[in-house]
Structures are given as C-alpha cells and as structure tokens.
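Example 338, ligand flavin mononucleotide.
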Amino acid sequence: MYKLLRDALFLFPAETSHHLALNSLKLAGLLGALGKSQALPGKTVRVMGIDFPNPVGLAAGLDKNGEYIDALAALGFGFIEIGTVTPRPQPGNPKPRLFRLPEAQGIINRMGFNNQGIDYLLENVRKASYQGIIGINIGKNFDTAVENAADDYLIGLRKAYSHAHYITVNISSPNTPGLRKLQYGDDLKRLLEILREEQGKLVQQHGRYVPVAIKVAPDLTEAEIRDMAGVFSTVQIDALIATNTTLDKSAVQGLLHADEQGGLSGKPLTQRATEVIRQFRADMDSQIPIIGVGGILSGQDAQAKLDAGASLVQVYSGFIYRGPELVRECVEATKKAG
Ligand SMILES: Cc1cc2nc3c(=O)[nH]c(=O)nc-3n(C[C@H](O)[C@H](O)[C@H](O)COP(=O)(O)O)c2cc1C
C-alpha cells in the first residue's frame, strides 16, 4: 500500500511530496483513519532516565516545526524528535534543496534549518494531544556568528526546557556554514560547559531534570572521535546521537543528483554510521547512552545499531522509502533480540 502511494508521491519534486505526504497523514489522523495514537509495544528501555515504550524513534528534520506530532505518533514510534528549530524563524536555502537518489535509497539535502522559530514550535507542542516522549532539537540561526552560537543554544535550551523530555544540541548539520566547527577542541568544550551550567540552573528553576543529547556528524577521523569521546565523558553529556548526514558522496558517484551540495543520508550511510557508533561506544564512558541513526532501512539495520552499542535508534530516510512498515519492522526486530 505504501509502495503505491510512494510511487505516486515520487512523481513530484522531493520537497513537494514531503509536504503532500505529511499533510495527507495529518488529514488521515484528523479523520480518525490512523487509529489510536500509541507507540507500538516493543522492547522497553530506560535511557537518560526516561522509560521508552519501544526503542524506535523518528529522527530530527522531518517535522521541523512540530506540526505533525499527533499524526506521526499514530505510526507507533517510541519517541519523536522535532526540529531543528532556531531562535528566530528563517527560510533556509533556496529551492531545490532536497533530492532523492532512489537507486541508492539515499537522500541529499541542503535545507539549511528552514523553520518557523522556536515560539511557533512550542505552540504546536502545547496544542498536540500526544502524551509520549518528545525530543526537541535546537540549532543556531544562520546569521548568528559561530563564535556566538552558544547564545542561540541557550535561548533554545531555556525555551524548550519545560516542553521536552530531552533536548538535542545539533552541532553537526553540514548545511549551516561553520556549525561543524563546534564539534572540535576548545569550541566543543566551551559550548558543552556553558550548556551544562545552564542545565543546572534550569533543574533548580523547574524542579525537573531534562537530559541534553549532542548530535554528531559521521565525517570524523578515529582521532577526532577519540578526542570528542574524551570531552563527552569529562562533561558527562546525557546522550550522544550518531549520526547526522555525511558529506562523503563516494558511495553514490555517477548517480543522478550525486553532485548536489548537501548531506547524504539513507542506505549509503548505514555502515559508516554504525562504525561511528561502535567507535564512540569503545572510547566514551560506558554510562553515556548512544542513540543510533543513519541508514536504517530494515529491522536488521536497527538491530545492527543496537549491537554496535546504541540503546535507541532513529529513522528518517528509511521512513521515506519504506513508510510506516519500517517502524513496525524495527520494533519487531529489536523486540525479538530481547
Ligand atoms: C531532508 C532532511 C532534513 C534533515 N534535517 C535535520 C535537522 O533539521 N536536524 C537534524 O539534527 N538532523 C536532520 N536530518 C538528519 C537526520 O535526522 C538523520 O540524522 C540523517 O538523515 C541520517 O539518518 P537516515 O539515514 O535514517 O536519514 C535531516 C535529514 C534529512 C534527509
């Protein structure tokens, strides 16, 4: 059924079908066609002090403004991450900026954090009837200098704090110039210390601990992963999300759209993301959980991420190619493995 719908949707430019699909899903939800909005029963896990009904989540970027929370929840995800959201609304990069590479089951995007700003997203969170686990992914506006990035993350952290089960700090999008600089050395340490300190204040203020996860890129050398793992262990981040999209297009060379600028996701990323998870698991304090994401297109792929050391997984591109069936398959596969 999804295959038929997908073939029809794929006739449109990628971003048009994205909106068509999400709006149809929303409409189906409003008409009651999706049934009860409930996580599929799966392997329950406690991660970051939160009880997840199943370990399969929706990755950031599909619902950047939190406009489709209830409709997406009806598909059975164990958790939903919305955003990336920035302090102020911004249009993102000029279109076209989203490309499908169906032969490779891949996607290249250079959206550039198109979003309507954090106040609009929070309004949508308030309006949603979803009672499940929600992560809010925060970023910086494109016109905020990288040296001042902490200011934007602080705005995001403060505003999102009372609305999220966890907050993700995205320092790994390839489509905001300079952002990935924040992954290294003193820049990384300084940013994490600032956020940790603010989190401490917010705990006092709200009487509730909201974990902060850090999302990283797959384009890291072994030495860079070792250094970052050291910093994450020292600062004791609450979780690591690995990985974002890759700038390495070697796996799709020669295919239509392969030369488009932006980050590549989907099947061409599967192995690399799993490797990054495996290395962080080996190098980082074992108490810090990893959320594995990147090229999960089957239940087996989801289980491979858990085997490499992740405690939870997220999907994005696989969901575009396989639809809601992928969520079911991943929940089942990870349940069987106990
Ligand atoms: C169109 C598109 C938009 C994305 N936007 C975001 C985003 O706003 N924030 C973020 O942290 N990750 C974003 N991502 C990255 C995904 O969350 C995920 O980390 C990456 O695509 C790898 O997973 P996948 O292979 O299952 O897609 C985006 C990915 C795609 C394809």
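Summary: The chain has one domain: 2-336.
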